Amino acid sequence: MRSYIFKIIFISVVFSVLSCSNRHKDTSSSGLEAIKERGKLIALTNYNSISYFIYRGTPMGYQYELLKLLADRLDVELEIVISNDLNEAFRKLNDNECDIVAINLTVTKERQKLLTFTNPISQTQQVLVQKKPLNWRKMSRRTMDKYLIRNQLSLAKKTIHVMKNSSFVDRLINLENEIGDSINIVEVEDYDTEQLIKLVSKGEIEYTISDKEMAQLNQSYYPNIDIETVVSFPQQQAWAVNKNNKELLLETNKWIDSIKRTNLFAVIYNKYFREMNAGKRNNSSYISLNGDNISKYDKYIKKYSRIIDWDWRLLASLIYQESRFNPNIKSWAGAYGLMQLMPATAKRFGASKKSPPSVNIYAGVKFIKWLNKQLISVKDKEERQKLILASYNVGFGHISDARRLAEANGKNPNIWTDNVDFFILNKSNPQYYNNKLVKYGYCRGEETYNYVKEVWARYKMYQKVVR
Question: Can you give the pTM of this predicted structure?
Answer without folding.
Answer: 0.71
